[in-house]
Amino acid sequence: MSLPSFKNPQLLTRALTHRSYLNEHPEVELLDNERLEFLGDAILDFIVASWLYRKYPDYDEGRLTSIRAAFVRAEKLSELANQIGLGEHMRLGKGETVSGGRTRQALLADAFEAVLGALYLDQGVRAVQRWLMPLITTEIERIIAEQGDRDAKSALQEWSQAMRRITPHYRTVHEAGPDHAKLFTVAVFIGAEEVGRGTGHSKQAAAQAAAANALSHLIVEI
Predict the structure, then answer these.
(1) Choosing from 37, 41, 96, 139, which is the catalytic residue?
(2) What would the pLDDT profile of 129-188 be if each residue is shown by its tens digit?
(3) Which of 76, 129, 173, 196 sees the fewest Cβ atoms within 10 Å?
């Protein structure tokens, strides 16, 4: 997969332009990608929901919602952005570039959504659907096969309460990086026993990673 082709290349340029670039280049007469990100987010939700509705007629609303949420989260979108080499095309300020912006999960996910919004404005929703379908099909089938739509914290809590009659608790054990790019490490405990650790750019993401880590060690089927 690669970036889609545009009739109006300026739309793609805008989708790839982070506000940090414009802050350092006031001479550039172009907007940043935030409004396109907003549009792309809505279009992505619609396309994924429509595809799931048709593909899995036996799934109820709750399961469809959880699968969609697993696909559109920043972690997954940043993986898709990496598949198409989006990071190397992003226009970032020097500070963002030096601090690792081209590989930062949030920036990649935002830019991916902005590209979708730009493609919609350029060629309409069908063009977005055609470009997205290979990505949607492969990734959602993987999510379902691996039960990646299950919330790891909820699954661990269910197991712990059933098997050990106690609720897991989480503790932030390390923080690193500048304020705009913090990396948190969270440990999860069942009683006094540490059963897993995870990292993420938010405490919530790190806690989810810790729960998933714990489940894999506990060999729990989720």
Answers:
(1) 41
(2) 999 998 888 888 888 776 666 677 887 888 888 889 999 999 999 998 887 778 899 999
(3) 173
